[in-house]
Design a protein that fits this description.
There is one protein chain. The chain is an alpha/beta fold. 35% of the residues lie in helices and 22% in strands. It has two domains: 111 residues, Nucleotidyltransferase, domain 5, CATH 3.30.420; 174 residues, ATPase, nucleotide binding domain (Nucleotidyltransferase, domain 5), CATH 3.30.420.40. α5 crosses α6 and α6 crosses α7. It is globular, with a radius of gyration of 20 Å.
Length: 326
C-alpha cells in the first residue's frame, strides 16, 4: 500500500498559529499550534513552527507523502508569497514568508490571505459546497474577508482584494485607532478586540452593575462578554447589539457590491451564536436595497472554527499541485 498523500495547512492568526496535517478528503491526521505573539523575530517563529510541524509528522502512525505547505495569513499575498504590513502580527513591513520558510523545507510553499484560505475551506469542505457566489467574514483578533464570485476567489490586481476589515464605518462613529495606522476601521469595532473596546466604553457610559467591571482590559475576553450577555448582563448585551449593528451595516454594502448567495461568519466571536447573528442579520436587512431583502443567507461556518482556515490553507497545496500537472 502506498503512502497517504497529505498537505500541511497553516493559519497564522494574531494570537495563535494553528496547523494541521490534512489528507485530500479534508481529514486531519494531526494538528497543533503555537503562540504567534511569543516570537518577535520572524526567523525564530518559523524555526519553532517548523520544529512543531516536524514533531507531529514524526508522531504519525502511518507513512505519508507531503505534497506542500499552504499558509493563510493576514495580508498574505498569493502573487509574491509575502505578508505585507499586517496590522495584527508582531512583524512589520513586508515579510517574504515563502522565501524564509524555504530555509527549513524543500516543499512548495503557498501563501494567501487568512480569510481567503477560510473561504477556500468553506467552498471545498463546508457550507459553501456548490455555491458560486459567497463571502466569508472571519471574526478573530481582527476582521478578515474572502470573496468568491462566479466560483473564483477575488484577489484583485495586487492580491489584496476584499479587505473590508479596513474599510471605514459610519461617519461620526469612526474615531478608534486601528493597528494599521488609520482611524475608524470596521475591525476596531467588529472583532474579538473590538467588542472588548466597546465594553470598556459602555462601562464608562452606563451605570448598571456588571461583573465585567472587575476585569482589566487584558483579562477580558470575548468569551467573558458572551457568557455575561447570556446571563442578561446589560453592558454585555449592549456591546453585542452595537457590534451587530456595525457588522450588519457593512454587510449590506457587501451585498450591494457582490450580490452573494450567502455570507458565512467564521471565528471565535461567532461562538456567541445569536448574540452576534441576530443583530447583524437585523441591521443588514434594514440597510439592504429592496431587491436584495430576504435573499441573502447569513450563516455560521459549517466547519470547526479552529479548522476552517487550516483546511483552506491545505487546499492551496492541492490547487498548486493540480495546476502544475496541467
Amino acid at each position: 500500500m502506498g503512502k497517504k498523500h497529505v498537505a500541511i495547512g497553516i493559519d497564522i492568526g494574531g494570537t495563535n498559529t494553528v496547523f494541521g496535517i490534512v489528507d485530500k478528503e479534508g481529514n486531519f491526521l494531526a494538528e497543533g499550534k503555537i503562540k504567534t505573539r511569543d516570537y518577535d523575530e520572524i526567523e525564530v517563529y518559523l524555526a519553532a513552527l517548523n520544529e512543531k510541524v516536524r514533531l507531529e509528522l514524526r508522531k504519525l502512525n502511518e507513512k505519508v507523502d507531503v505534497f506542500g505547505i499552504g499558509i493563510g495569513a493576514p495580508m498574505g499575498n498569493i502573487n509574491k508569497g509575502t505578508i505585507e504590513y499586517a496590522a495584527d502580527l508582531p512583524w512589520k513591513g513586508i515579510i517574504p514568508l515563502a522565501d524564509l520558510f524555504k530555509q527549513f523545507t524543500t516543499l512548495p510553499v503557498t501563501v494567501t490571505n487568512d480569510a481567503n484560505a477560510a473561504a477556500i475551506g468553506e467552498m471545498i469542505y463546508g457550507g459553501a459546497k456548490g455555491m458560486k457566489n459567497f463571502v466569508v467574514i472571519t471574526l478573530g483578533t481582527g476582521l478578515g474577508s474572502g470573496f468568491v464570485v462566479n466560483g473564483e476567489l477575488v484577489y484583485g490586481n495586487d492580491g489584496f482584494a476584499g479587505e473590508i476589515g479596513h474599510t471605514s464605518i459610519r461617519p461620526g462613529e469612526s474615531n478608534r485607532q486601528c493597528a494599521c495606522g488609520r482611524k475608524g476601521c470596521l475591525e476596531t469595532y467588529v472583532s474579538a478586540t473590538g467588542i472588548k473596546r466597546t465594553v470598556f466604553k459602555l462601562l464608562g457610559d452606563m451605570i448598571d452593575d456588571s461583573p465585567l467591571r472587575d476585569l482589566s482590559f487584558n483579562e477580558l475576553t470575548a468569551s467573558d462578554i458572551s457568557e455575561a450577555a447570556k446571563k442578561g448582563d446589560k453592558v454585555a448585551m449592549a456591546a453585542f447589539e452595537h457590534t451587530g449593528r456595525m457588522l450588519g451595516y457593512k454587510l449590506a454594502d457587501v451585498v450591494a457590491h457582490t450580490n452573494p448567495e450567502a455570507i458565512f461568519l467564521f471565528g471565535g466571536l461567532t461562538l456567541s451564536g445569536d448574540l452576534i447573528f441576530e443583530p447583524a442579520r437585523r441591521h443588514m436587512e434594514q440597510n439592504l436595497l429592496e431587491i436584495y431583502k430576504g435573499k441573502v443567507k447569513l450563516l455560521p461556518s459549517k466547519l470547526n472554527t479552529q479548522n476552517a482556515a487550516v483546511l483552506g490553507a491545505s487546499a492551496l497545496v492541492w490547487n498548486h499541485h493540480d495546476n502544475n500537472k496541467k
